[in-house]
Amino acid sequence: MNKVTDADSAVADITDGSTLAVGGFGLCGIPTVLIRALHRGRATDLRVVSNNCGTDGHGLGVLLADHRISRVTASYVGENKEFARQYLSGELEVELIPQGTLAERLRAGGCGIPAFYTPAGVGTQIADGGLPWRFAPDGSVAVASPPKERRDFRGREHILETAVTTDVALVRAARGDTHGNLVFHRSARNFNPLAAMAATVTVAEVEELVEPGALDPDEIHLPGIFVQRIVPLIPDQAGDKTIEKATVRD
Fold first, then answer.
1. What are the Cα distances from residue 11, in Å, to 3, 15, 246?
2. Which tens digit of pLDDT belongs to each residue from 138-152?
């Protein structure tokens, strides 16, 4: 039942072409140590599902800079210049999804729900199709999004969205026990629980590791049934949190 391991061992079996769900929002709550361990490995052609793709030099941006990511499913990508360059030059396939829809697609995947209807995206290219997923080198659209199935509920149009499941999830928690029960701190409880639920194998880096029974059952945000591997962080790793945009005053 003890799921504790080290970062390199935890990601060693991630292979070329694997699909990854990665927690975090911007640089908040991202599994920095696991991403760096994955970067030390050789896996490439990775298909990533995450709210965003890090920034230049941080988070998933490290893998992106080395051309180790071939496809990104995300809702926000505006803080990474290399991301924009790869996308516009046809080196990277990108599926943009409304943020709430992305969260629900991950949750649905974790709950065994194959698809759901939502009004988000109706009247846009999300519903109609034609969003450029991949550009050709000449700037034309090489791969475009398909149209989505539609249905009216109570007089309002909805579109069908399919669940997201992945091979592996990488997440970060504030506290966790050796059985994999996790607690997230405030805004870091964003996409982390949802990403963890959607994967076949979930790896969690934990800032504070405790023994089973130390966590109050009422404070557990993600039960250990969804977590297969735990990587405890040393204090320097736990405290290494990059601020995406610092606002300071004299």
1. 14, 9, 31
2. 999 999 999 999 999
Q: Are 116 and 162 within 8 A, CB to CB?
A: no
Would you list the DSSP string of 177-225? ETT--EE--GGG-SSHHHHHHHEEEEEEEEEEEE-TTSS-GGG-SB-GG
Q: Which residue has the tokens 């995450």?
A: 50
Residue type, 39: H
Give DSSP secondary structure letters for 91-156.
SSEEEE--HHHHHHHHHHHHHT--EEEESTTTTSHHHH---EEEE-TTSSEEEEPPP--EEEETTE
Tokens at residue 58, please? Answer: 């941080």
Give the SS3 label for residue 81.
helix
| 57-83 per-position pLDDT tens digit | 899 999 999 999 999 999 988 788 999
Q: Would you say 66 and 92 are in contact if contact means Cβ atoms under 8 Å apart?
A: no
Is-contact 51 25, C-beta < 8 A?
Answer: yes
